[in-house]
Amino acid sequence: MKEQILMATAQEINHRGIKFTVDNVAIRLGISKKTIYQYFSSKDELITQVVEMALVDVENQEQDILADKESNFEERITGLLLLTPKIFGPIEDWVMEDIERYRLQDWERIEQFKFERMVALSQLLEEGIALGIVKKMNTKVGARILLGACRELSLYKFLEENNLTSVEARGLLTDIFLHGILNKS
To answer: What is the pTM of this model?
Structure first.
């Protein structure tokens, strides 16, 4: 039941932002609010648990990608850039803005996670340099550019205006990053 409550909470957050109510979660599940409070002490705990669940999901996927030595460099970097929580799908950018504005502790955990992703991506770029696949560069700058571009390409307004999904936009970014913008001549 606890996982079902977290999943329903994640759906409510993606639908209503962090201004959802516990009543909304209960209605979504067809249970009483009292049942939810048997598992979670507060709405705050629900939000924190959903954020943590999403981050752990993505961290586990990232570790699998980095540990997969059978995949080539391009597959691994593409995998890292296309990561999204599998347990409940992409998180809307406006929800992230809500978390940043109103949930400082959760936002700090997200920022720590983003820093860890930058380090992992930087290490993968360094591996590519060592293999002679990637030209020499400041890998921290390269990682920061990629992650910053991923964030920008995930903005709802941009995606809607260009009829793209977040995954499609990040796929295009990966292609441009890996293959450049200049025609080979």
So the answer is: 0.84
Q: What is the mean pLDDT of each run of 10 residues along the chain (185 residues)?
A: 94 91 96 96 96 94 92 90 82 85 94 92 94 93 91 84 88 88 77
Tell me which amino acid residue 128 is.
G
Number of domains in the chain: 1
Residue 3 covered by a domain: no
- 163: which DSSP letter? T
In sequence order, which ranges of 131-165 are alpha helices (DSSP H)? 139-153, 156-161
Going by C-beta distance under 8 Å and a sequence separation of 6 or more, which residues neighbour residue 52? 109
- Residue 5's alpha-carbon distances to 33, 52, 101, 134, in angstroms, are 11, 14, 24, 45
